[in-house]
Structure prediction request, 289 residues.
Amino acid sequence: MYGPHPRTDRRTRPNPALGAFLRSRRDRLTPAQAGIHPLPGLRRVPGLRKEEVAALAGISPDHYSRLEQGRQRTLSDDLCEALARALNLTDVERNHLRSLADPGSRRGGWDRPQQPEPGLLRVMTALDHLPTLLLGRRSEVLATNALLAETLGVTLEPGTSFARWLLLDEAARARIVNWADYASAAVGALRYEVGQHPHDHALAALIKDLRAQEPHVDRWWHDQGVTDRTSVTKRIAHPTGGPLEFDVEAVTLPQCPDQQLVIYTVEPDSPTAHVLPLLRNYARQAARV
Prediction:
């Protein structure tokens, strides 16, 4: 007769996501980039050896091996900082590592309906001269302005998945000249969100579906890259406005970190800045029809 299943200590459960991320960052970093002399002997890895990362982080090789094997569930802040320095992580990657290092700290609440943050909606109204959209969890569209629809050539209704449109719709590839750059950054943003909300089953299902339908998404996902959507350049081929170029910035509020106001900014006196008023008029005329 079977007895009750023994409880597993959260700290001893496997953490494969942490191990995979560390391994990917180690593979991309050469000894020269890390500022060290390579260990002698034949190198069988493209980047640093485990022993080299361990030395840089001030831990034993066995300890680091356990981390890459996912055998240590959580990491202290000091160890996260040591690994971030050893692996030359960016600020976004450093934040992602901290999220992976404590995956049990964020649970529940992600299935409740999303409502646009009023303060961000007010900012969007004030920025109606720029293409703008408000995104929530899982890249769900919460609101857009008319100029965004005119710029992208699509009306993204509230509740639409921006990631699905961007990554799966052929029209997005035709409209966005540097689609691969922007799409890979969007996949990195999804990975960053997974690190923050590892128990969001709807987010996991979305990513699984995107990976199954688009080989590029699956490849970018395996690259383990993380981004936070900010400062991404987007080039648009507009049928009447011609070539457009935007720097895409994301704004969040401390009281509402799961919503991002995404703003397509332009350089003053640039060709795009001169065309936008014309596109804004097109958008207003379309709204009156």
Notes: The longest helix spans residues 179-196. Residues 216 and 250 are 24 Å apart (CA to CA). The domain at 10-101 is CATH 1.10.260.40 (434 Repressor (Amino-terminal Domain)). The first strand starts at residue 132 and ends at 135.
